[in-house]
Amino acid sequence: EAAFSSALRGPWTQFTGLFEELLDRLPRRHEASEQLARLLGWFRELQERVEEAYLEATDAAQPAENTPETREQAHEKTQEMNPREVISDPHILITNQLNPVIRNSSENEEVEAVVPNVSPEEQADRELEEWVAKVRKSRTALDLATVMQACPEFASWAHNMGGFLKDWSDLHRVAGQLRPMIGISEHAWNVAQDRMGKQVATAAFALVFEKHSAGEVASPGGYLRGMVEKACAGELYLERSFYGRLSGQAV
């Protein structure tokens, strides 16, 4: 809030979005201590990054205290600090007065290609994006078409009950309607949604429904609870299950 009110430059919108996402992942019911500890770690790391970015932004916003130097003064100071003389003429870097080295434009282009000119702001943005991706790693990247192809029995029932399914919201609604058919209690379904999120819970339900229809799962409620426990421990890999079923269909 202080950064927004002071109009400081920085990734505040990203930080706010990630903070809200972490809040959404806080358990509404009893949760395993390992999951709570993991969430606490994310909150602490987010706090450290926000504080670091805020300090950098406030430092950048402050006017420079040093008085301007003339070009000659800056040149003299550079010579005093470094015994190697740097000449500002284009493409000339002198490291030894007796052996000047001259680079042409093509050589400079090759050097720039090897060492890209990345500003500190761009580097910070990249690091932030990588960290956000790490936080969200546990979320499934499955698309609707993959789920429906891998679970044809579920897809058939879903279309019969819901008609045209255009997005995950439609599929989530149908999953709630199909839930009683395979004996999954409302409590178990609510727990799955609370702890995994609606989209992941819907994908997990589709898989349970398909396996139960194929005779692979005798207790759908217990199987779903096991998937929830794995998700909380970061050990649920739905993509593998769906792509594995697709591979089995192709054989």
Automatic annotation (TrEMBL):
InterPro entries: RepABC_RepC (IPR047611), RepC_C (IPR021760). Residues 144-247 form the Plasmid replication protein C C-terminal domain. This is Replication protein C-like. It comes from the Bacteria. It comes from Celeribacter persicus. NCBIfam families: RepABC_RepC. Residues 57-84 are annotated as: Disordered. Pfam families: RP-C_C (PF11800). Residues 68-84 have a biased composition (Basic and acidic residues). The lineage of its organism: Bacteria, Pseudomonadati, Pseudomonadota, Alphaproteobacteria, Rhodobacterales.
